[in-house]
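#onboarding

Welcome to the new folks! Below is a worked example of what a typical request in this channel looks like: someone posts a single protein sequence, and someone else replies with the predicted structure as tokens. Don't worry about understanding the tokens yet, we'll cover that in week two.

Example request:
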Amino acid sequence: MKISLIIITLLAICAYFILSQSESPDLASTKNTPIETVQTLTFVEPSSATLRAEGDSAPLPAAESQPEVIVHTLSDLELFLGGEYAGGILYEGELYDYLMGLWDQTSPEMTENNYQVAFSEIASNGNTGYLIHVSPEYTETDQQNFEYSAKHTDIERLVSSTEFGQRSMDKERVLSRLASEYKPDDITIVNMECMEKKCSVYIDAESDKAFSDFADYVGEHMDAAITSMQGKKLNEGLLWLRF
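Example response:
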């Protein structure tokens, strides 16, 4: 009886062992393989602020290149030919050479491109040269404006000013007498006004020499400092007498 129980037990153990060895390999592999969890990682590029925080300087935008401005300054000759030359005294340069080439070497003055050009001979260290005085041509309108200003505006300005004292009839009488007595050239006082410290007198003389001579004559007889201003007509103009 005992022997039968032992034999049955041994058979059961063998059967269990055989059954466990005969299980499906796929099932065994399924039981022994761990389950892997896949995690997706997202890579984020560092921002510019992060880079600057780490000490890396962000690239600056390239500066826009400015176009170079080239200013061309016209020469005196170019200004003269274009009628925009303000005038002046020349002793060298392109405009000087240009005008010397046009000059006939005879007349001391000439008119060119609406400019008045006067040549003055000078000597230096035994050498002779020329200065050229260039000025815009004096027009008839210029002369009319000068005469009106000298005959009227200047005198009105003198009378309205309190700088030169009160009006002086005595000085006006002296001027009238000197003009009437002046010989050999005739002098005509067109308009005048005298204050205690200054006289403004517009005179018309027989010639430009008579004008300048009379100015000197008046200065000596009235003990006054004389300043004159003339327009295109050199035989007439304005005299200022200061006392």
